[in-house]
Amino acid sequence: MQYYHARRNLDFSSPASSPLESPIYGAVSPDEHLDAKVKLRNRLNSGHLANMPAGFPFRRLTDPCGAPRICYDPYEFREDLRLDSRRGKLAAYVSFINESADTRPYSSKKDYLSWCAYLPQLDLLPYTRGPPPKLPAAHVRVDAQVMNTAYGKHIEGDPRIILRALSISLELGLLVTVSLEHRDDYPGTFSVLYIGTANNGRRSVLFNAGSFKMRRRT
Q: Looking at residue 28, what DSSP letter applies?
């Protein structure tokens, strides 16, 4: 793998994806678009999102007996951003996508768990035939096998891990993939790497989260 230096850049081209609709009407100017990126980045980095579900990055529910459990079903929530340059608000969205059909996605050996953040599309003309599309501004995916390590337990219990990864993706304009790399010097131990992929396909190791072993599950 080649290594490249990743520079901070808020004026990036968003990763390609199919646009979804947002209830934001009217023109979105370049200044407003950049302001929204900065405010969303700051909220993600601080870990303070008003509508984040309990148990993020998944959801924490209770079973019929009242016992807590983790729900891996896809979800999306809205985060309103108040901008200095406009009277109203712009809406950002954060979604979780489980690519595995299994209710316990880490049982898969080839799928990813994905989190995306969306912002309204930059457009100088008001939308008169419906809401403007919302486009991906950040994308983080975690190799399902990472969830089988002790680091996966950290991801389940600490929402800041995925939120900060989304913040990095937003700021650098990179797809961030959390993956495993075998350590030949310590059998049964894996390095958890954060890999950034640019739109041109170049990949860089953003950082190494450390070495972890597989965890036992009940």
A: B
SS (H, E, C) 135-201: EEEEEEEEEHHHHHEHHHHHHHHCCHHHHHHHHHHHHHCCEEEEEEEECCCCCCEEEEEEEEECCCC
Q: How far is CA 44 from the centre of its chain?
A: 9
Quote the tokens at residue 68: 């807590």
Amino acid identity for residue 198 in this structure: A
C-alpha gyration radius of the chain: 18
Q: Is 60 helix (H, G, I), strand (E, B) or coil?
A: strand
Contact at 8 Å (CB) between 180 and 215? Answer: no
The two tokens of residue 1 are: 């793998």
Give the residues of the chain that fall short of pLDDT 70.
1-27, 85-88, 100-110, 123-132, 217-218
Would you call 204 helix, strand, or coil by DSSP?
Answer: strand
Q: How many CB atoms lie within 10 A of CB 91?
A: 18
Give the helix/strand (H/E) hosting 113: strand 112-120
DSSP letter, residue 104: S
Distance CA(186)–CA(188), nearest Å, equals: 6
Its pTM stands at: 0.81
- Strand runs (DSSP E) across 9-88, as ranges? 20-21, 59-62, 68-71, 75-82
> pLDDT tens digits, residue range 53-80?
999 999 988 888 888 888 889 999 999 9
Domain ranges of the chain: 20-213
